[in-house]
Amino acid sequence: MKNFYIISWIFYGLGMFFQLMHWPGSDIMLLFGSLLLLIHFGLFFFIPNTTSNSEKTAYLVITLFTIYVTFRLVFLPFSYLWFWSALGCSGLTFIFLISSKTRLKWIHYIVIVLLTLSSVLVFVKGDQIFYIKNARYMSEDSNPCAYGLWDKYSWFLYCSDKTQEALDANQKAIDIVTEKGTCNPFLSNKENTLQELEHRKEMILEKNWNGWRSLQEFAK
To answer: CA-CA distance, 217 to 220, in Å (whole number)?
Structure first.
């Protein structure tokens, strides 16, 4: 069981590293690592062992908070369900701990830290997460596909009701395409790309942008 747990975290850690480096496959690795953690908890919980209930639920809390963070990082829907599930299990963990009248162990301190960090993350909006993840890649000097990042950033800003900021990001994408063209061979038509970006500007102004569709495979 211990080896399985270590392997799960190795997969997750690699996914996080790939995410930071903007290498392909990071989202899949994060989700797969999260799935392995869930499987580990299922095996750990149902296989007879001497671990206390407070420690078992603490492992579940760590898994749920990890999945919540993953959903926020890859912008999947219903991330709040994982957060509230983790929050409820956190309460259960400390109820078990108090009822058994035992001292805090290292895993309980990890739960407290994750609870604090995840509670802060709840108040961080999607556009802020996107910018933190991609800021160093959004310069056209270092990334000729930077217009794709600015285009998607405008969508996150729009969803956060930051209309002017969304328009500014959209204009940045337009400026990059106007100056440098497109970097994707499947989108070599500069005029069509500009027309689509201009259309998105109109949707931002009219507040009827109902979905974001990439102009290119999201440049990482």
So the answer is: 9
Q: Shortest CA distance to 66 belongs to which of 214, 58, 109?
A: 58
Residues 62 and 113 in one domain: yes
Could you identify the residue written with the tokens 């994707």?
A: 184
Q: Give 47-62 pLDDT, tens digit per residue.
A: 776 778 888 889 899 9
Contact (CB, 8 A) for 36 and 61: no
Q: What distance in Å separates the CA atoms of residue 37 and residue 149, rounded to the nearest whole number?
A: 31
The answer to whether the Cα torsion of 179, 183, 184, 186 is positive or negative is positive
Q: Is the pTM of this model over 0.85?
A: no
Judge whether 218 lies within some domain: no
Which domain range does residue 15 map to? 2-123
CA-wise closest residue to 218 among 67, 25, 1, 15: 25
Considering the domain boundaries, does residue 216 fall inside one?
A: no
Q: List, for residues 19-34, the tens digit of each pLDDT value.
A: 888 788 888 999 999 9
